């Protein structure tokens, strides 16, 4: 018998879509139950959203003032305690939130963590990328211990809405919380454009743009498409755009329906971040650029001429 506990990711009372993607992954295990754990000061709206996800059997909530902010050091002891209630698997999204939390949970449970699950082969056997995505390895975890894993959410579609909402139950956890970590402030970029991590369309620019000012043509095209804006690491390192727009192995792993790469050569570290994209369009003056090897559509030419023409055509 297998039971999966998924730790919900949320911010400002809104459930992150990564939680529903974890549910899709958990379904492949064919478990007896998939429960979602919501840790917050006010669990109301987040728990209600989690209860609407198809495949969720139950939503467990822990409402404590200490859970007002997603601090891994505070959440981990509570997740580890909840996992001991008969759960065989504990999943978290492979986002900044999950990557911070899951290792602590695994350590508290005394088990090794499986990272970036991209395919389920069995109850304790998974596929995950290694070497910057150049290879896929099959890993097997011990079946006699709780399995803690992060899910590569770009590899899974979000589970849809259920016909009936799952029951919501308050979970009593008697565990001491550490006091060596405290919340100070959250600084996050604000934009009217879609969030890069969950956008269905993304337009990214590379070092070929030449300057932050020239990046305006990327913003203009993205706005015409209703898309989020991304960038290669080279463009970020050059100071053209802030680091939160970086796509790739050391940036954000995304899976939009449409990805437009402008002036991006296609280093393997960047391709790792977009391998699950639906349709990839590349614009580059170098016909031999690696990006064209994976692009569904390619346009060779001067981006400063082609992008404005494309924007006008749209």
Round the Cα radius of gyration to an integer and report it.
Answer: 21 Å
Total E-strand runs: 17
* Element string (H = helix, E = strand): EEEHEHEHEHEEEEEEEHEHEHEHEH
- Portion of residues in beta strands equals 25-35%
The biggest beta sheet reads: 7 strands, parallel
Notes on the structure:
- By secondary structure, the protein is an alpha/beta fold.
- Helix content is 25%, strand content 26%.
- The chain contains nine helices and 17 strands.
- The chain has a seven-stranded parallel β-sheet, with helices on both faces. Strands 14-13-15-16-17 form a five-stranded parallel β-sheet. It has a three-stranded antiparallel β-sheet with strand order 8-9-10, with no helix packed on it.
- A hairpin with a 2-residue loop joins β8 (119-122) and β9 (125-130).
- α3 (72-83) crosses α4 and α5 (216-225) runs parallel beside α9.
- The protein starts with a strand and ends with a helix.
- The mean pLDDT is 93.
